[in-house]
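Trying the structure run again after the queue cleared.
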Amino acid sequence: MENLWQGLIKALQLIISLDPEVIQIAGRSLWIAATSCILATIVCLPLGSIIHFNKFYGKRLLINILQTLYSVPTVAVGLFVFVFISRAGPLGSLGIMFTPIAVIIGQVILITPVITGLTVSALSGVDKGIAETAVSLGANRLQKMILVLREARYAIISAVIMGFSRAVSEVGLSLMIGGNIKGFTRTITTAISLETSKGNLELSLALGMILIFLALLVNIAFNQLQHR
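Done. Tokens:
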């Protein structure tokens, strides 16, 4: 217990002193997860809208598959991406293995089912009377879709938050296709895994605190946006 307390004190000292290594790792984690979330959102909002506003055979099955993929192991996604971008893979010529681009691609694939599925759920939760009233007043299909999206914006923001949280907290995928390279692809989660195995409890605790703090800041920011 004493060792843990000492580790916490040293971890706080690393954070307060703005230790360069800690700040660098935290900043890299934040921009990789944020980039992944933005790219996934650009894809998922139109995709979720298409699924919700159209009737087609297998729609319920597709939604069930998306919901099942919420909990897909990160290492499974990492393996899938690894097969494609490794030297022997079809995209090996791009040379993006063990780069931040590879991690971003993996995270986009990882969180796409989450944001898409939750977007569909958000749109489904909007009162159908709103869309019917809009149509009765002369709204076309696009205007109806925009209206429903606007009504569901708070729930959609929550979906984006979930996607970001999933991206910033994953570790298996980053280790497999990012390589945990110091100063290049090392993120908070991979650094925690490495430093803990080395017995560097202070740095691990500092990074863990920062990870929780970043998640808290993002949630506060999105909640403020919802209230406005």
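The first helix runs from residue 2 to 16. Worth checking whether this holds up in the mutant runs.
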